[in-house]
Amino acid sequence: MVAGLLVLASIVEVVRRLSNPYPLVAPLLSDDVYAVHVDFDTFWNSAVALTHGTDIYETPAKLSNLNPPLVSMLLTPFAALDVVTAYRVFAVLTLLMMVGSVLAVCSELRLRPAVTALATLAVLASSPLYGTLMLGQIYPLLLVGLVAGWIAQRRGRPVLASVLFGIVVALKPSLAPILLLAAVQRQWLPFKAGIAGAAVASLVGVLVAGPSSAGGWLRIAFSAPVPGWVDNASLPGLAVRFGLPSEIGTVLGLAVLAGTLWWCGRHRDRIDPGGTALWAVLAAALLFSPIAWHNYLMLLWPGVLVLITLGRGEITAIALAVPVFPVSFTVELPPHSSVTAAVARSFYCAVLVGYWVFLVRGATLSELGPSRSSGTAATSKPPAAAACPVPKEPSAVTHVAASEP
Question: Regarding predicted confidence, which is higher, 20 or 94?
Answer without folding.
Answer: 94
